[in-house]
Amino acid sequence: MSPTRTANYIALPILLVATALGLYWVWGMLFVWWIVPTIMNGQAFLVFEINRDDDPVLYWAIVGLWAVLGLMMIAASLFPQYAHLLA
């Protein structure tokens, strides 16, 4: 099994447990991580594939959305007393 497949099999139960325990920072880290391959490949996925060269505005909006969502989830976990302000 390739390392990327192994990582996916490890990530899925971690995400399920994090969801059950309300550990939003784990999801936040995943959103932030998704930015790396998205920028490297020039492809983002929303409902369908979006290519940076074909639709740069939508592409960068998705990258920005993932960054904001990731940072919001991390911030909600680090500062739970302010989490209501992020919703």
User: Proportion of β residues?
Assistant: 5-15%
Residues in helix, %: over 70%
Helix run count? 4
Helix-strand pattern: HHEEHH
In short:
This protein is mainly alpha-helical and 87 residues long.
Description:
The structure is a single chain. Strands 1-2 form a two-stranded antiparallel sheet. Helix 2 runs antiparallel to helix 3 (56-78). Helix content is 74%, strand content 7%. It has 87 residues and is mainly alpha-helical. The longest helix is centred in the last third of the chain and has 23 residues, at 56-78. Strand 1 (43-45) and strand 2 form a beta hairpin.
Topology, please?
Blueprint: H1 3-21, H2 24-41, E1 43-45, E2 49-51, H3 56-78, H4 83-86
Antiparallel strand pairs: 1-2
Helix pairs in contact: 2-3
Label this structure with key terms:
4 helices; 87 residues; single chain; 2 strands
